[in-house]
Design a protein that fits this description.
The chain is an alpha/beta fold. The protein contains three helices and seven strands. Helix 1 packs antiparallel against helix 2.
Length: 154
């Protein structure tokens, strides 16, 4: 079971619809066009289109499985006292005194540019269940990170 926000669920549904209604028909048209050109054994366009079709079908199947197992979390039922899924956490890196804000998201919604980190990441796992004022140490590929939680919101 995958828990996610309504926003993340809607994005996945929109992407799946785009793949099924726009991109897959385009690839099928490209395959038909390449097939009309004759000998398929040396037809690069045909093989490239078939590879793209396989990639798209794999992505579609993956997204369908994710959506089948998805459970949308109602933010109004979440408590803001400790860190959990969909918590927006403001923290200070005690090594550099840099402040950073991340939202703990499902792995399918994680996007560092948007400030969303996966709940399965080392930082998020270390933060889960913690409260404002708590300090945590996290082992990351770059070394040991010391963080102090400044604020938690939804």
């Amino acid at each position: 079971m995958e828990y996610m926000s309504q926003e993340g669920y809607d994005k996945l549904v929109a992407e799946l619809k785009q793949l099924e209604t726009v991109e897959l028909p385009q690839v099928r048209d490209a395959i038909a066009e390449a097939r009309d050109k004759g000998d398929l054994s040396e037809n690069f366009e045909y093989h490239a289109a078939k590879r793209e079709q396989g990639r798209l079908l794999g992505r579609i199947r993956f997204m369908q499985r994710v959506l089948e197992n998805a459970r949308v979390i109602d933010k109004s039922r979440l408590g803001g006292g400790s860190i959990g899924l969909l918590s927006k956490v403001e923290m200070t890196n005690l090594n550099t005194n840099a402040r950073m804000t991340y939202t703990i998201a499902s792995p399918h919604e994680a996007n560092l540019r948007e400030g969303k980190i996966s709940i399965k990441s080392p930082i998020a796992e270390a933060l889960l269940g913690k409260k404002v004022g708590d300090e945590v140490e996290v082992r990351v590929p770059a070394g040991l990170l010391k963080l102090r939680i400044e604020n938690i919101s939804l």
